[in-house]
Amino acid sequence: MEKVRVGVIGSGFIGQVHLEILSTFDDVEIVGVMDVDKNRAKSVAERFKAKVFDDLRQMKDAGINAVYITSPNKTHFEYAMNALETGLNVFCEKPMTISLKDALALESKVKEKGAIFQVGHNRRFAHVYTFMKERIDNGTVKPYSFQIKMNRGELLNPPWTSDRSYTGGFLFESTLHLFDMARWLFGDIEEMYVLGKKSVYPDIDDWSIAMKMKNGIIGTFTSCAHASWMIPFERVEVYGEHMMMTNEEMERVHFCKGLGKEVESHDFTKVDFKEKWGYITENRLFIDCLKEHKTPPVTVSDGVKVIKIIDACYKAVESGSAHVRLEG
Q1: Does this model's pTM top 0.85?
Q2: pLDDT at position 1
Q3: Which of 3, 73, 231, 247 could make an SS bond with 128 (beta carbons 3.0 to 4.6 A apart)?
Q4: Nearest by Cα to 11 from 58, 44, 39
């Protein structure tokens, strides 16, 4: 069996999650690791029987087919552009970039190079959300409205989390996943009414957004960065005709089938987090797309659309013009 040869840029927590998963795939060879922290890179490379590389050219020369970019947010764009220029395929953790300008440039480069480029929006493959998606797509539930909540307990740990120049801003952190989920479950956004303020941190840390989708579905989206990790910190509620679906983070999902009818519940508490959070599936699909030269399930254009939403939210609050219409 010819193996897909991969390298990982960034050997922190999420980089090691991907490495652990890839190490279980018979058709993958982990060739190398890159990290500004050379000691950590050496330790992680030894653990996965890989080499330490200093740059992308070395990775390409070593016969690597694709790289995983799992470094800090602000570095994603430069690494991704360099990887594409070097002739490598890319799996890029979210956020794809921390600016709309860079996202559009990256989208153009992917098309120019004809590369396989997947964005790490892992929530699409989490059991609780695939449950919802399947019932929407097969017509069991026709959504009329929704509520989405994505809170964070604090912006203190890691200490750079509240540094917008480093992360792009609070919305580029976990909240980004739920903007993607809104698109994935309910379609593209037509217009928003956006309110935001700085309550505790230097970044805008309280958000309340009303959304209208192009298909007429309406919903609300809230996100707070100082909620002290009160659970569930992540929830999507879908409202159909006397039906409702809701989740408790990635742990549980519930489906009320109608007035006076049963509620179907699934509990994933005991499932390994790499599976229930969707990491295993997204990795398997990326590797399969590399082998079969197929379009990945989360494309660079999906990444751009989410960053357009976040860009519009920040511009709305900073300009004082709360109403936003999204084009394209």
Answers
A1: yes
A2: 60
A3: 247
A4: 44
Write out pLDDT tens, residues 265-306.
999 999 999 999 999 999 999 999 999 999 999 999 999 999
Q: Which residue has the tokens 């989490």?
A: 126
Nearest to 18 by CA among 27, 7, 5: 7
Candidates 122, 82, 88, 86; CA nearest to 102 is 82
- CA end-to-end distance (rounded Å), the chain: 42
Mean of the pLDDT values across residues 228-255?
A: 97
Distance CA 194, CA 207 (A): 7
Residue 158 has a CB neighbour count (10 Å cut-off) of 12
Q: Residue 174: which of 202, 152, 149 has the closest Cα?
A: 152
> pLDDT value at position 328?
67
Pair of tokens at residue 24: 């279980």
Task: Give me the domains of the chain, ranges plus CATH numbers.
Answer: 4-122+279-299 (3.40.50.720), 124-271+307-325 (3.30.360.10)
